[in-house]
Write a structure and sequence with these properties.
alpha/beta, Glycerol-3-phosphate (1)-acyltransferase, two-stranded antiparallel ribbon, 8 helices
Length: 248
């Protein structure tokens, strides 16, 4: 058993021991803005302003983007899924999959907080975990949310890279929750690329975007390295396909 899987098991036992949160309480928490008490007054203002500004920026631009979707037959809404994609496609993916109640992971940091608020405005849930147990607690929240009927999304090379290198979190989430992985890629014809580690992409107005949705697959064992390698390979192939179709 991997170290992450062992930590998740220990975390689940700890929650069971103290009773944990009831399902409805957890779901309500995921879709509620987190407290900003730990930040300074100036930081609170920036977080609130940035979350609203980013929301309106993507909403206004998103209405002008022409989406071309391939593989739509692989996506169904009759069961929870684990959506998997690259970190630098967050803005356009957030707009495309909006208002579906999908739960995503967000770290407890200044930058992550305004991004969490941005995506929550589009109907997403944000699993933050605790300040002491970090991503392990957030992953457990996502597992419980998926078991309660919510889909989840994972930027598999986040939160800090390296770019286009998949990490095992999504595979663990799929194995522990029983939900199938739905890999996809979105390529944008014209976009701004920020100077972040992932060169995050913000679409330019009236651009074209190609969405390629891959076949779903089920993970039985989260420690199976071949499944992790499979996800890496599939996402690379989908990115190559969407880039080719968009003409990059």
């Amino acid at each position: 058993m991997s170290e992450m899987a062992t930590q998740i098991l220990q975390e689940k036992k700890r929650e069971q021991k103290i009773g944990g949160e009831r399902g409805e309480e957890l779901l309500a928490k995921l879709y509620t803005y987190a407290s900003l008490d730990q930040y300074t007054f100036k930081q609170r203002l920036i977080i609130r302003f940035a979350g609203v500004a980013l929301y309106w920026l993507i909403r206004v631009i998103g209405t002008t983007v022409k989406f071309e979707v391939h593989g739509r037959e692989h996506h169904t809404i009759d069961e929870p899924l684990v959506y998997c994609f690259w970190h630098n496609r967050i803005p356009i993916a957030t707009y495309f999959w909006r208002e579906r109640g999908i739960v995503v992971m967000s770290s407890r940091s200044f930058d992550s907080e305004y991004i969490a608020r941005f995506i929550q405005r589009y109907g997403y849930g944000a699993a933050r975990g605790s300040s002491t147990r970090g991503s392990r607690a957030a992953l457990i929240q996502m597992i419980r949310a998926v078991k309660a009927g919510k889909s989840a999304a994972f930027t598999v090379d986040g939160p800090s890279g390296p770019i286009y290198v998949a990490k095992p979190g999504a595979v663990l989430l799929a194995a522990k929750s029983g939900a199938a992985i739905l890999p996809f890629s979105i390529s944008i014809e014209r976009c701004w690329r920020l100077s972040s580690w992932d060169r995050i992409e913000i679409p330019k107005p009236f651009s074209r975007a190609v969405v390629v949705i891959g076949e779903r697959f089920v993970v039985k064992n989260g420690d199976d390295e071949t499944q992790h390698q499979r996800l890496q390979r599939v996402l690379e192939e989908l990115q190559e396909q969407s880039d080719r179709l968009i003409g990059i």
